[in-house]
Design brief:
Elements lengths: L1 E11 L3 H12 L4 E4 L7 H5 L4 E2 L13 H11 L6 H20 L5 E3 L16 E3 L3 E2 L5 H4 L10 E2 L3 E2 L2 H9 L4 H14 L1 H6 L5 E2 L1 H15 L3 E3 L3 E7 L5 E8 L2 E13 L8 H7 L19 H8 L4 E2 L4 E10 L7 E5 L9 E4 L13 H15 L5 E5 L1 H6 L26 E3 L2 H7 L4 H17 L11 H5 L19 E13 L2 E2 L6 E3 L5 E7 L19 H24 L5
Parallel strand pairs: 1-2, 1-13, 2-10, 13-23
Antiparallel strand pairs: 3-5, 4-5, 6-9, 7-8, 11-12, 12-13, 14-21, 15-16, 15-20, 17-18, 18-20, 19-20, 22-23
Bound molecules: flavin-adenine dinucleotide (FAD).
Length: 576
């Protein structure tokens, strides 16, 4: 059915890529519709940490980064086929995008976060940018509860919003953490006017702060957002140019015309088992993903492939180790927990199912996932692997969803979790037997780790030897904040999956975010950004925010390209 509806631009997906595309396109004077298949908008982006990797961002007072340093760094960390034009476009336009975002009314602040390969040339610790806490009710009471909420574990007790500083303070039980927790809870209950209308904290933090603040500007510029509206097919004219979308909404199908472009910001394919099986060397299950359940199923990619689009970098996810636990107070549901920083804490070690280490556990979570995949290929005994720790770790740190003693003492752990989700034994040998890992191998690994804890040097993988590792170590532990002897009973193990934050590859795009076909030519009228498209770094995750940074940047680039072509069309100029 053709309803006769026409917009200049139709954006598919309401996450970071879609929101930024819409904002910039509207700024450029184009009429914009965002279609979103979910009943909530904001995508994975709204649930995320909201960190953007914007090298050479120029924000803050003492930013001495330079284009040369950024290129040095990227040259040393990216491997495999990377499109240099696309990489250059990112490096040049990410700061421009951030500048525009700020000028449009979205506050941005630099965050101290070491690049993920801190020993490589050009690495720095000031390239990540975040949004300060945002008052969600600014979106209006009809909208603020319709935006996806943060990832459960980024909230205190799954309810109270925390910013990154509060999260880290509680995670590490830093001095004064109890006061921090009390303030977070007090603020929520003191907000009586909001408590009357919603359980939702009006304090939008992390990804919700970013997406909330962007949507305030998106709505101000007259962009329409239509939820529960799913892209089914792309519509083309006789010349093969994309001219619109066919969508479904509660079973009704209709088409919408896009005069100047369709932008796919529909996320990756992490919830599509078939595409995982097709693309990944070690597939893993959809439910290992920490993105919103059954959300991104690669529908943009499937629609684009039907028009002959090529794909790139599809062999990898944005890996992050995850574990699974039953959801509190919800029968028959399981919750995915990230264990990104837990795996590198002192008094612990990660082993494959042969009881052997395979990585510097404190490395960036994406590199950790890559090591899991490589070890699975080499040994067939990874994915899942095991995080093994002792009573000291248990007292202080979380292990995926198992919170530290102060929050979840032993008697509060549901009885059915033991030896199903979390394994416990009085000796390392008994633990090895329980988790079916060779006893001698695990004993040797733990004994080696205990030796490394004494010297502070991990000769196998260099755990704790760089500032990234140390950033997430325990500064009270010496000589190495990431290494402590695993020697205090009881001993524990939790299974760790090769989870993800989304997929790294997708539809092939060029430096202008145009979708490229199998012959290497752009498909007229079709663009992609964010995880719907191949990322600019190939298989690499250079720093915190390196998925949302490009998503926003290529959304911005797509909107500018569409506007330029639309202007050219109006003025009769030949598009470049
Ligand atoms: C807990 C967590 C924390 C994270 N923290 C960070 C971080 O701090 N920094 C960082 O860079 N990355 C982070 N990530 C990863 C990051 O969130 C994602 O890579 C990023 O948000 C992807 O943005 P996107 O716009 O491409 O997709 P999304 O934000 O997932 O948006 C895609 C949208 O498209 C919609 N959609 C899909 N198919 C269709 C269809 N057929 N029709 C209509 N709509 C459709 C989806 O419903 C969704 O709303 C985190 C991820 C998680 C899970």
């Amino acid at each position: 059915m053709n309803t006769g509806e026409t917009f200049d631009v139709v954006v598919v997906g309401s996450g970071a890529a879609g929101a930024m595309t819409a904002l910039r396109a509207a700024e450029n004077g184009l009429s914009v519709l965002i279609i979103e298949k979910a009943h909530k908008f904001g995508g994975t982006s709204a649930t995320s940490g909201g960190v953007m990797w914007i090298p050479n961002h120029g924000l803050g007072e003492s930013n001495e980064d330079s284009r040369e340093q950024v290129m040095d760094y990227l040259a040393s960390v990216t491997s495999g086929p990377v499109n240099p034009e696309k990489l250059n476009a990112y490096v040049d336009q990410a700061p421009e995008m951030a500048y525009y975002l700020k000028a449009s009314g979205v506050e941005l602040i630099p965050a101290a976060w070491p690049d993920y390969f801190p020993d490589k040339p050009g690495a720095r610790a000031d390239r990540s940018v975040v949004c300060p806490t945002y008052d969600g009710r600014r979106l209006g009471d009809d909208r603020y509860s319709l935006m996806r909420e943060q990832f459960n574990r980024f909230k205190l007790f799954n309810r109270y919003a925390m910013d990154l500083t509060e999260t880290f303070s509680l995670m590490m039980q830093n001095k004064g953490w109890r006061r921090v927790a009390a303030n977070v809870i007090r603020r929520y209950w003191m907000d009586r006017s909001t408590r009357k209308v919603s359980h939702r904290d009006r304090r939008f933090t992390q990804g919700a702060a970013l997406i909330g603040a962007v949507y305030e500007q998106v709505f101000k510029r007259g962009v329409q957002l239509r939820m529960e509206t799913k892209l089914e097919h792309l519509v083309i004219d006789a010349g093969g140019k994309v001219t619109g979308v066919e969508v479904s909404n509660f079973g009704r199908k209709y088409t919408i015309t896009a005069q100047h472009g369709v932008v796919l910001g529909s996320g990756g394919f992490e919830w599509n088992q078939e595409l995982r099986d097709r693309f990944y060397p070690v597939p893993g299950l959809t439910r290992y993903s920490s993105t919103p359940e059954d959300g991104n199923r690669g529908e943009g990619l499937i629609a684009a492939e039907k028009l002959g689009a090529a794909t790139e970098h599809t062999g990898e996810g944005w890996w992050i180790p995850t574990m699974t636990l039953p959801m509190p107070k919800s029968s028959n549901f399981h919750e995915i927990h990230q264990a990104a920083f837990d795996v590198g804490r002192p008094w612990s070690v990660c082993v494959n199912r042969k009881g052997v280490r395979f990585v510097d556990e404190a490395t960036g979570y994406d590199s950790f996932g890559q090591a899991m995949v490589q070890d699975q290929i080499a040994t067939g005994a990874n994915c899942p692997c095991w995080l093994v720790f002792d009573a000291k770790f248990r007292a202080k740190f979380s292990a995926g969803g198992l919170m530290p003693w102060a929050h979840t003492p032993e008697h509060k752990v549901p009885a059915d979790w033991w030896d199903h989700y979390i394994f416990r034994a009085d000796t390392i040998e008994a633990l090895a037997t329980k988790i079916k890992v060779p006893v001698d191998a695990l004993r040797t690994t733990v004994s080696n780790m205990n030796g490394y804890a004494k010297t502070g040097v991990d000769p196998e993988f260099g755990r704790g030897s760089n500032i990234y590792d140390q950033f997430f170590g325990d500064p009270t532990v010496s000589p190495n904040p990431n290494l402590g002897p695993i020697d205090k009973a009881p001993f524990y193990a939790v299974p760790i999956n090769n989870g993800d934050l989304g997929t790294k590859g997708g539809i092939k795009t060029d430096a202008r975010a145009r979708v490229i076909d199998l012959q290497g030519k752009p498909i007229a009228g079709l663009y992609a950004a964010g995880n719907a498209s191949g990322n600019p770094f190939g298989d690499c995750y250079p720093g915190a925010g390196a998925t949302i940074g490009p998503a926003m940047t290529f959304g911005y680039i797509a909107a500018n390209d569409i506007a330029e072509r639309a202007g050219n069309q109006l003025s009769g100029k030949q598009p470049s």
